[in-house]
């Protein structure tokens, strides 16, 4: 089932998410719905807070990035088919010189800005079978993971912008929170009541 994506301005996006247990009710269905929702919106990542759930869960599928002409064959190969589930994730380490990349977010449609992040991360998490994993990622994969990880920490990419950049996009962010935006996927705006 395609779920509505929570728009900028909803308090759930600013809340630090809580861990989930192996017996989380309806987990398999939730995962299926999250992937369906992400693909429907042409996203490469989706965090549970973006569908209104303040839990430490996010998914990533970087395959669409593998079609970028500017990437090397090796980069394309690593991005193609990279699909993961991250439960109760903790970034243990970030290293390297920060680099800028133009980021966007399904919860903040039509706003894209350069964000600086470190290129290499070590992350500890549970996979979809709740098995503990420790992985090291770099480049675009690390960036997508960092972006989604921020969601479970209550951080949006716009929080990482300079105060000047924030002032420039303030009106657009306000319009998004009021639902004054055209998107081609389901969204839930802060002033809308939840549909049961």
Automatic annotation (TrEMBL):
GO terms for molecular function: peptide deformylase activity. Its cofactor is Fe(2+). It holds the Pfam family Pep_deformylase. The keyword Repeat does not apply. Belongs to the polypeptide deformylase family. PANTHER family: PEPTIDE DEFORMYLASE. Binds 1 Fe(2+) ion. The active site is at 148. Its EC number is 3.5.1.88. Fe cation binds at residues 105, 147, 151. It is an enzyme of class 3 (hydrolase). InterPro entries: Peptide_deformylase, Peptide_deformylase_sf. Removes the formyl group from the N-terminal Met of newly synthesized proteins. Requires at least a dipeptide for an efficient rate of reaction. N-terminal L-methionine is a prerequisite for activity but the enzyme has broad specificity at other positions. Gene3D superfamilies: Peptide deformylase. This is Peptide deformylase. Coiled coil: none annotated. It catalyses: N-terminal N-formyl-L-methionyl-[peptide] + H2O = N-terminal L-methionyl-[peptide] + formate. Keywords: Hydrolase, Iron, Metal-binding, Protein biosynthesis. It comes from the Bacteria.
């Amino acid at each position: 089932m395609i779920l509505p994506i929570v728009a900028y301005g909803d308090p759930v996006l600013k809340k630090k998410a809580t861990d989930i247990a192996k017996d989380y009710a309806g987990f398999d269905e939730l995962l299926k719905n999250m992937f369906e929702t992400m693909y429907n919106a042409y996203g490469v990542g989706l965090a549970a807070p973006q569908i209104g759930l303040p839990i430490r869960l996010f998914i990533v599928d970087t395959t669409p990035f593998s079609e970028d002409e500017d990437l090397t064959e090796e980069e394309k190969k690593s991005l193609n088919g990279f699909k993961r589930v991250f439960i109760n994730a903790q970034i243990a380490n970030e290293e390297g010189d920060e680099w800028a990349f133009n980021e966007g977010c399904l919860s903040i449609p039509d706003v894209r800005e350069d964000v600086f992040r470190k290129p290499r991360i070590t992350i500890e998490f549970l996979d979809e079978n709740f098995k503990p994993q420790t992985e090291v990622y770099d480049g675009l994969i690390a960036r997508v993971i960092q972006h989604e990880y921020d969601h479970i920490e209550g951080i949006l990419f716009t929080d990482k912008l300079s105060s000047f950049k924030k002032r420039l996009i303030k009106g657009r962010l306000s319009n998004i929170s009021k639902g004054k935006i055209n998107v081609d996927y389901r969204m839930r705006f802060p002033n809308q009541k939840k549909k049961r």
